[in-house]
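Minutes, project check-in
Item: structure for the 365-residue chain
Input as provided by the requester:
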Amino acid sequence: MTEQDFILKTYNSTIESGSVKWASPSNIALVKYWGKKKHQIPENPSISFTLSDCKTITEITYTKKQEKGFSFDIYFEGEKNEAFKPKIQTFFERIEIYMPFLKDYHFKIETSNTFPHSSGIASSASGMSAIALCLMSIENKLSNIQSDSEVSQNYFNQKASFLARLGSGSACRSIEGELVVWGKNESIAESSDLYGVKFEGDVHSNFSNYQDTILLVDKGEKQVSSTVGHQLMYGHPFAKERFDQAHVNLAQLKAILASGDLNEFIKIVESEALTLHAMMMTSMPYFILMKPNTLEIINKIWAFREKTDSKVCFTLDAGANVHVLYPESEKENVLEFIKDELVSFCQNGHYICDQIGQGANQIQF
């Protein structure tokens, strides 16, 4: 698929109003995306676990209007929110060529998260993917398309992911589950820089219902945004080596997912997490998003694994929070370990238990 394939050519402009509602999850990358080209194209491929319970629920009500131009209101958790408008304005401007009906309607966007606001979990992936899915459902209505066929559903998911990417890069990995690849890689035949694709390789039963407990180390706003962090990869002295490393790690992880080798899984996932932050610490200007308690948690996990031979491991987002990953078979023991030894390093003792999920779902048709 190319960008041209996603341009809506004709649609029924006589539909006066309607509403759609989607729930879309967050995701956590195993092989990290850090650095992007123009138009939200990644410098390297990534693969992520789609989460199950940490999601954004968005309803969009659309009403036909006379004057042309973008028109929308945003409500977050029931309250009108002006702070989100610039980002949505930019998003609409980027995707207008693919959805020309955007200027024909006024949109009321009502959104909420299942996880606490300012919890330290990035909501851009779940939030922008939920909006993209709602807009795709509206497109289907205006085009009189039934999305129950395999071909139309595949196109729907691809375009939703394509649009979500233009709002937030990692959002393109939140459409489907359980594992999603974004970025062209030779080991993944259908991979693309334009949208995320569901990982169709063999996945060992060791990874069934894989658990993710998110330790909320710091709920504050990051001192350096991800957007700025991505830009600092331009001219980074280790950028090329990092991009090459991601390709190699993704190919290796594909084999690991098939074999079920949890020791090798741990090596790749933890190395990727630390490499992400190493790139931040060696950029110019350099910065550190980890906190002292992030390092305390990492060391505790290493000590616990050494002592018990557990297969628990960690990964990090572009912030201080720690995602504790572990097989479902270890759930009881790992949660006890978290409560006994790790919760004290979380802000206000807050953590969220989640697991690998199946992707977004439509709530209102």
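Outcome recorded: Residues 94 and 166 are 7 Å apart (CA to CA).
No further action items on this chain.
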